[in-house]
Amino acid sequence: LKQSLETGDNTRVLHIHHTPRGEEYVNVEMWPVKDPATGSVSCFIEIMRPSRVASAQASPQGLVGRSAAFQQALSLAERVAASEATVMLLGESGTGKELMAEAIHHMSPRSGGPFVPVECAGLPDTLFESELFGYVKGAFTGATTDKPGLVEAASGGTLFLDEIGEVPLSEQVKLLRLLETRRFRRVGSTEWRDTDFRLICATNKDLAVMVREGEFREDLYYRLNEFENLLPPHRDRQVDVQPLARSILDRLDRPEISLSEEAAEQLRAYSFPGNVRELRNLLERAVLLTDGDVIEPAAFPASVREVSGENAASDPGNSATLIPLVDVEENYLRRALATHTGDRRSLADALGISERALYRKLAKLEADQ
Q: Using CA atoms, how far apart are residues 64 and 157, in angstroms rounded to an integer?
């Protein structure tokens, strides 16, 4: 409201809203209405649209998270979804790039069409063209019938090319031609076909470096890189551990199983080099090793227990020597300020306090220095 009042333009922000159903993501839009006589803003129209693809609390489906890094990625996805722009999802392996691509598809005008994922890393050079464009009978040994390709299957919807950096250099020019003309030929055919799809790509590689090293075509790189969205690694989403763990257990059809507080603390202390995929694997293993309804730390591998144990030993709050609570809070607040990448509002949300309370604590912290 303040920004809209200052600029006189409509504004939009993604916000966690408290509803009778619990906390929900909503896109809040503010539209100033101007007096036709004076041209000044006379009132505002506020529109709140709930997110259809993400939840701030545990959910049996969709994206889950409430950390500032997750909110940033979700906000960008919500903004680009309505357009036809090619989206490049960046991030480490296991950060949920395909889930984000599906979310963008479901928020887009093409949601009624197909979502066709293509795992580029699993396609050898000899199969890439025939899988993508299809082939006609007799095109090569074993081609006994005509077969449409994935490009045709995605017409009217979204084509998702996962690990785009693995596309063979020899095939990249054909992909570029497809994107430029929206036309292709099946292998072994002379007939040009039209197609209509929205493209989303993903990679865990630095394509700019690959371009400089001659491993990726520069013209294709700039054609694909219309809109980047970086998905955060799990180590930047520690506040999301419990809702993610609850969601994963529900999706494993084990709603009766929960984490003990000690187990949850160990997961928050672990850095998860394999990201959310590793969290799922850990929980699947823990479920198999748990006889009751509560997962305890003993169900985790030694590597997880050792790392989290080292972190706990270095935390003054876990020291055998008791220290005043005010000192613990101040130390934690300093660490939060040093590691948090968002603004003060998102930091307050991550800490579970109001923005006003956060500013009071920061003012006290400065006064005590």
A: 24
What confidence tens digit (pLDDT) does each residue in 311-340 have? 544 444 444 445 567 666 777 777 777 666
Torsions phi, psi of 23, nearest 5? -80, 130
CA–CA distance, 172 with 165 (Å, rounded to integer):
10
Residue 63 and residue 74 in contact, taking contact as beta carbons nearer than 8 Å: yes
Model pLDDT, residue 312? 46
Helix (H, G, I), strand (E, B) or coil at 35: coil
pLDDT digit string (tens) for 103-161?
999 999 999 999 999 999 878 777 888 999 999 998 888 888 999 999 999 999 999 99
Residue 287 host element (H or E): helix 275-289
Helix 261-269 crosses helix 275-289 at what angle (to 10 degrees)? 150
Question: Distance between CA atoms of 66 and 23, rounded to whole angstroms?
Answer: 10
Q: Which two tokens stand for residue 210?
A: 């690959």
Q: What tokens appear for 1 in the block?
A: 């409201």
Distance CA 341, CA 349 (A): 13
Tokens in use for 103? Answer: 């979310």
Does this model's pTM top 0.85? no
Q: Which is it for strands 227-230 and 87-90: parallel, antiparallel or unpaired?
A: parallel
Taking the C-alpha atoms of residue 270 and residue 304, their distance in angstroms, rounded to an integer, is: 6
Using pLDDT thresholds of 50, 70 and 90, give the confidence band for residue 74: very high
Answer for the pair 348, 358: CB distance below 8 angstroms, yes or no: yes
Cβ contact 246:254 at 8 Å: no
DSSP string, 216-234: S-HHHHHHHTTEEEEPPPG
* Rounded Cα gap, residues 206 and 30, in angstroms: 37
Q: What is the DSSP letter of 21?
A: T
Q: Tokens 């030929």, residue?
A: 185
Instruction: Taking residues 276-284, report their average pLDDT.
Output: 95
The closest of 201, 165, 189, 195 to 177, measured between CA atoms, is 195
**Terminus-to-terminus CA distance in the chain, angstroms?**
35
